[in-house]
Amino acid sequence: MPIVTIQVTREGTKPGNDAVTADEKAALIKGASQLLLDVLNKPLESTFVVIQEVNTENWGWGGLPVEAYRKQRGLKPG
Amino acid sequence: MPIVTIQVTREGTKPGNDAVTADEKAALIKGASQLLLDVLNKPLESTFVVIQEVNTENWGWGGLPVEAYRKQRGLKPG
Amino acid sequence: MPIVTIQVTREGTKPGNDAVTADEKAALIKGASQLLLDVLNKPLESTFVVIQEVNTENWGWGGLPVEAYRKQRGLKPG
Amino acid sequence: MPIVTIQVTREGTKPGNDAVTADEKAALIKGASQLLLDVLNKPLESTFVVIQEVNTENWGWGGLPVEAYRKQRGLKPG
Amino acid sequence: MPIVTIQVTREGTKPGNDAVTADEKAALIKGASQLLLDVLNKPLESTFVVIQEVNTENWGWGGLPVEAYRKQRGLKPG
Amino acid sequence: MPIVTIQVTREGTKPGNDAVTADEKAALIKGASQLLLDVLNKPLESTFVVIQEVNTENWGWGGLPVEAYRKQRGLKPG
Fold first, then answer.
1. Is residue A51 within 8 angstroms of chain B, CB to CB?
2. Residue D69 above 90 pLDDT?
3. What is the CA radius of gyration of chain F?
4. Which residue of F has its CA nearest to D49?
5. Could you give the domains of chain B?
6. Does D3 touch chain F (CB under 8 A)?
7. What's the complex ipTM?
8. What residue of F is the nearest CA neighbor of B5?
9. pLDDT tens digits, F36-76
């Protein structure tokens, strides 16, 4: 009966994408559910996964909105 | 001072609706607040209710996005 | 497939109790699940309820830990 | 490594704004991160801040959607 | 910069354990972080994982505390 | 009516403390509530703050439980 909540920024993380794709979401759901089965023997059908996409201006890191922080530190999106 | 968070898929669950309606949201708020009053004596004005609607492609069940899982299992939305 | 999260302070709210009792928890679970069935036609077996009890020193209201706020305002627990 | 989640209604709270502005979001991020540094010595770069904006019809207070509750009580947005 | 929150009941799920073990927690953390790297190219060091253990009497399924629901349905813990 | 949730590891962050103290919690509550007043004009009495303390073995960073990650990277608690 686990619940896995995955919070990520609403942006693409591979070239040519500007958002998390439906295929990537399906892969996150499959992988998270499988992880709970492998580690804790939780049946796939008893796990819920919720993906929350957060606009980059709503995500803070280092005291700054994340895009400003990445620019300051020379980081790629991630 | 309770906080009740209700997470549901962003879809209609009655014929002819394709989303949770304002009336249904008001009924969830009223019912959840009344429940805390009935069971734990919490005054209505000290309870917050937050409804989070989640796109169906962001909700996983059985290792699949929920619409794929329902199709596989012959389940209705719910 | 809803998820209902109920956050309350870890304290009794009826005379003679110093905690939320197992019976009160069962009543919260029953009522919240029934609410989703009544309002959105969600089957009981597809709703998860999670109750989170929070120590009073970890709950803030009015800029103060909740027990200090209640004392300042002459409020009963709630 | 703290995580600070700030949930607010999706509306303006100063004259002429109908939403939380990017500058206000940046101020929330800066202030919350600084608070964790000041109180618990957490380095700025180890704190995440997530701002969640909630539509007013999805936020309940006093057993009512918040705009109905404010009207009933003669409260300003807040 | 993802955040993965894993909520599970506070109980053992393998013979002889009565709780989630430190090794199982480490495996959940490793697997969830790797998943975000594999699917969305998120560097390991930018992912936080938070495991929340919930007492069984605080977890509801099917309108009942989970242990009562499992007994009614003849389900194993999971 | 904002809700501010602050998640931190359950450990002391100043010499001689092995936990977040009641005074530190009160300072977090005061500061977070004041921040919402300063930035968004939210009255103190309409803000809830919830502090969640997470055991270090339940917090992951860099694919590892946080204490293992800090040791690997030569980081202080934070």
1. yes
2. yes
3. 15
4. F6
5. 3-73 (3.30.429.10)
6. yes
7. 0.96
8. F3
9. 999 999 999 999 999 999 999 999 999 999 999 999 999 87
